[in-house]
């Protein structure tokens, strides 16, 4: 059911969510207020995502990917969590939420103070060796990339995508970092286009939904398969479903309340109603 008036929507959502343990599914829309563009939203750049097969197949692909990923990460690192991230962290602190499943790779939920975050698409905050499995923190890795490629710091021929893969030209001189343990191939720990969400991650997300009494979807149009599967799980359990998104989503007609608007503002208003009633 969809109510037209925005304030009524919030009231009705708060009523439905009140007294229930809430699980939250977030997408790119919650990070737009932090300056990270929503690539599926209005004015989004046309993307040419690299597949994992391409990444593995030739050094040229890895040069392009890592150069773009490096610039994208710097932009992520310079951004800050917004009021929407903070509102969700507060819901968890107050025991009203059992956790967040996020499709974002920007790490902003953790930086906002949320502790139970299932990042189903991974995170740009870490990289992994494809040969020995060693994980690397991104900050020192970025430092190493900067030292290997001092020229790229001055480069401005790039545009950022929210998955951290910026488009960079003239990357043929980019030096790709190797695993310092075994010399193997490093990959940012994110799910590539066309790759499946790791089963373990999906089950962690699903168990959050299973153990909750309500689901909020914030800032996702639910075009990603893992997202809609989690929503269907909530619907099968017949728990209330509240969707906050600017524009249509794949589950609007099945939501108990659809709030058509920005995620940050709506989450702040919801937090206020849920904590003062
Ligand atoms: Zn290694």
If you had to describe this structure to a student in words, what would you say it looks like?
The protein has 277 residues and is of the alpha/beta class. It folds into two domains: 147 residues, TPP-binding domain (Rossmann fold, 3-Layer(aba) Sandwich); 97 residues, no CATH class. Helix content is 38%, strand content 17%. The chain is built from nine helices and eleven strands. A six-stranded parallel β-sheet has the order 3-2-1-9-10-11, sandwiched between helices. It has a three-stranded antiparallel β-sheet with strand order 5-4-8. Strands 6-7 form a two-stranded antiparallel sheet. The N terminus is likely disordered. The site of zinc ion has 8 residues, from loops.
What is the fourth-level CATH superfamily of the largest domain? TPP-binding domain
By CATH, the architecture of the largest domain is named: 3-Layer(aba) Sandwich
Number of helical segments with 4 or more residues: 9
Side by side, the strands of the main sheet go 3-2-1-9-10-11
Structural category: alpha/beta
Strand content: 15-25%
Please state the average pLDDT score.
89
């Amino acid at each position: 059911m969809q109510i037209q008036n925005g304030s009524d929507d919030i009231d009705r959502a708060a009523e439905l969510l009140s007294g229930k343990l809430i699980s939250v599914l977030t997408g790119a829309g919650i990070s737009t207020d932090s300056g990270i563009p929503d690539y599926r939203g209005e004015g989004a750049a046309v993307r040419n995502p690299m597949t994992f097969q391409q990444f593995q197949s030739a050094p040229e692909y890895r040069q392009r990917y890592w150069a773009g990923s490096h610039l994208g990460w710097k932009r992520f690192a310079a951004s800050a969590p917004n009021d929407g991230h903070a509102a969700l962290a507060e819901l968890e602190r107050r025991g009203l939420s059992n956790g967040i499943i996020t499709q974002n790779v920007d790490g902003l939920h953790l930086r906002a103070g949320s502790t139970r975050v299932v990042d189903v698409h991974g995170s740009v905050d870490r990289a992994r060796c494809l040969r020995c499995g060693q994980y690397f923190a991104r900050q020192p890795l970025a430092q190493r990339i900067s030292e290997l490629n001092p020229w790229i710091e001055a480069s401005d021929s790039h545009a950022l995508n929210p998955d951290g893969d910026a488009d960079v030209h003239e990357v043929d001189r980019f030096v790709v970092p190797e695993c310092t343990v075994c010399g193997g191939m490093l990959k940012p720990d994110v799910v590539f286009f066309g790759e499946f969400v790791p089963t373990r991650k999906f089950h962690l997300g699903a168990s959050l939904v299973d153990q909750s009494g309500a689901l909020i979807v914030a800032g996702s149009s639910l075009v990603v398969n893992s997202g809609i599967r989690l929503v269907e799980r909530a619907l099968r359990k017949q728990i209330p479903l509240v969707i906050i998104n600017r524009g249509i989503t794949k589950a609007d007609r099945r939501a108990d309340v659809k709030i058509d608007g920005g995620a940050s503002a709506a989450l702040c208003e919801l937090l206020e109603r849920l904590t003062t009633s």
